[in-house]
Amino acid sequence: MDLSPSRPAVVIDNGSGYTKMGFAGNVEPCFILPTVVAVNESFLNQSRNLSKGNWLAQHNAGVMADLDFFIGDEALSKSRSSSTYNLSYPIQHGQVENWDAMERYWQQCIFNYLRCDPEDHYFLLTESPLTSPESREYTGEIMFETFNVPGLYIGVNSVLALAAGYTTSKCEMTGVVVDVGDGAAHVVPVADGYVIGSSIKSIPISGKDVTLFVQKLMRERGENVPPEDSFEVARKVKEMYCYTCSDIVKEFNKHDKEPAKYIKHWRGIKPKTGAPYSCDIGYERFLGPEIFFNPEIYGSDFTTPLPVVIDKCIQSAPIDTRRSLYKNIVLSGGSTMFKDFHKRLQRDLKKIVDTRVILSEARLNGEIRSQPVEVNVVSHPIQRFAVWFGGSVLASTPEFFTACHTKAEYEEHGASICRTNPVFKGMY
Ligand SMILES: Nc1ncnc2c1ncn2[C@@H]1O[C@H](COP(=O)(O)OP(=O)(O)OP(=O)(O)O)[C@@H](O)[C@H]1O
Ligand SMILES: [Mg+2]
């Protein structure tokens, strides 16, 4: 029986910051939108507050609340221009926190952006490696009940990021994925396509923290940025001008010696008055991404550098997988895009590994020489949406359709079918 329907599967990677959506088989997502919903509060409040007797008005207000909402950039601009719209960010730190807003978000993704009938397409969605089975059940319920999809696969984002290498000649399904997005950062070891769950490490520092740190540095230097715009300016400054340096002290010196070469200028318009303003961008260019390598400059709550977290993650994995894991450290997520991020990670991690080898050889009085450990941090051009791309590749294989939960299975067994996730056996 040929299970593969003629229409391509829909692939949606909902991130804490941005949603990447499109169709399987494509190289790029059709849309990358902020994961935010703006709901018209006046209709919502009306439908809540009207008395039961006035059911028609209550019903109408409810219907209007269901229709009058926006997502993505449209939501942001609506909330700026009108105070009746309230913003809701349905995903926090990689987990869905507001299911009502999430359902609205998917509704617009499907009907207004991708413009497809969900009954005609299989769906591939993504989840964080720490998502609970209950949350996966909710997703299944919404997809099968509200959207009536014929089939659904919920892929673990790190595994999908590894699969992004599938189209290149050597697809390794063993490796460590370092996924640093907007609201979550995970280091996930994968062996033969299976996540080594007990060795997953989470880091409480991600893209949003870099933005907050850049915002703070600019504010402390007394830069002339209007407060209501300062977070957005900091985000843009971060994405356009930040880079990873090899040594902070040297970098300070470089900036001081040749300011003209390193200082950038930002020009903007004050949202309230429309007056133009400008400001300088200095040390924050390299201090922003430095919080991954020297987190104590950002705060005292978490002080383990990212390369140490990666090393700990690999050291806690089964001993026979460690060499292959060090050999294939794959970057994924927008916050790994800083210039030279992979070089710094590779250098710092190699230092940690080499020091351990030297120490263990010294302990054995040099009687046994160990094989050098190959450390390889892989950087690739589609890092920004590696998870989505991996989903697009997997969802265009025939195996995908056999790995999906189907509507018929859902109707027979209920949402509990979504608790487990079959891996594509054929692929690995
Ligand atoms: N060129 C760039 N340089 C640095 N950071 C960038 C760049 N482009 C995007 N970012 C940052 O990457 C983050 C978004 O990345 P991504 O889309 O992977 O996150 P997400 O999937 O929404 O979040 P998460 O995976 O944490 O739930 C944002 O913080 C954004 O500012
Ligand atoms: Mg993500």
Explain the layout of strands and helices.
Elements (H helix, E strand, L loop, with lengths): L9 E5 L3 E6 L7 E4 L2 E4 H9 L5 H13 L1 E3 H10 L3 E4 L2 E2 L2 E2 L2 H15 L9 E5 L5 H14 L4 E6 H7 L11 E6 L4 E7 L2 E2 L5 E3 L3 H14 L9 H12 L6 H10 L1 H4 L1 E6 L6 E6 L2 H7 L15 H10 L6 H6 L1 E4 L8 H23 L13 E2 L7 H9 L3 H6 L1 E2 H7 L15
Parallel strand pairs: 1-9, 9-10, 11-17, 17-18
Antiparallel strand pairs: 1-2, 2-3, 4-5, 4-6, 7-8, 10-19, 11-12, 12-13, 12-14, 15-16
The protein binds adenosine-5'-triphosphate and magnesium ion.
The site of adenosine-5'-triphosphate has 20 residues, from helix 7 and helix 8.
Rounded radius of gyration (Å): 24 Å
At CATH's second level, what is the architecture of the largest domain? 2-Layer Sandwich
Q: Provide the low-confidence segments as ranges.
A: none
Chain-averaged pLDDT: 89
Measure the end-to-end span: 23 Å
- Please outline the major beta sheet: 6 strands, mixed
CATH H-level superfamily title of the largest domain: ATPase, nucleotide binding domain
What is the domain total for the residues? 3
Structural class: alpha+beta
CATH topology of the largest domain: Nucleotidyltransferase, domain 5
Quaternary state, please?
Answer: single chain
Helical residue percent? 40-55%
List keywords for this structure.
binds adenosine-5'-triphosphate; Nucleotidyltransferase, domain 5; six-stranded mixed beta sheet; 428 residues; Actin, Chain A, domain 4; flat; 19 strands; alpha+beta
